[in-house]
Amino acid sequence: MTHKKASGYEEIGHTADLSLKVWATSLEDLFINALAGMYSMIDVSVSVDDQLEFQEFYFEGMDHESLLVSFLSECNFKLQNEKVYLDIKKIIVGTKSLMVKYSQLKINEFVKEIKAVTYHNLKIKHCSQGYSVVIVFDV
To answer: Is residue 3 included in any domain, yes or no?
Structure first.
């Protein structure tokens, strides 16, 4: 990983879908940055005055990649179907589990729609500086 910032994301070119490169010093920050990048790519606008109740969800998976896809897919489902933006308050990434506490914000609008978070070439890489991953979204 050779980035100027210790954590972040950037949209990268993809022929037909949306693609996002994400990096962070911890797995928790990698997941949070991935969600921030997904929200940024679809241009979500929220109402900060309309914060809804705190909630949480828990996933189990085979590995960190399956947990990342489950996490982003759940957030996308809530965006598309419930019209809410998840403001992550706490996230714990285990070896095969994920716990997320969040509050919901009402969405004013979003410009693009993501059909699915894919496993296409998905591999979380770990090095001395942290973690990185490239995520492809089906649009």
So the answer is: no
**HSE of 16, CA atoms in CB hemisphere, 13 A:** 4
**Residues with Cβ within 8 Å of residue 131, at least 6 apart in sequence:** 23, 24, 25, 26, 27, 30, 124, 125
Measured distance CA(110)–CA(44) in Å, rounded: 4
Mean pLDDT of the 115-124 span? 95
Q: Which residues of 123-134 are buried (b: 16+ CB within 10 A; e: fewer)?
A: ebeeeeebbbbb
Placement of tokens 């969405």 in the chain: 107
How many helices (H) and strands (E) are present in the chain, helices listed first?
A: 2, 8
- Return the CATH number at 90: 3.55.10.10
Residue 132: its H or E element? strand 130-138
Residue 63, pLDDT > 80, answer yes
Could you tell me the residue range of the domain that residue 78 belongs to? 8-138
**Residue ranges of E strands in 13-129:** 18-24, 44-60, 84-93, 97-110, 116-117, 125-127
Q: Look at the chain and report how many structural domains it folds into.
A: 1
Mean pLDDT of 66-71: 97
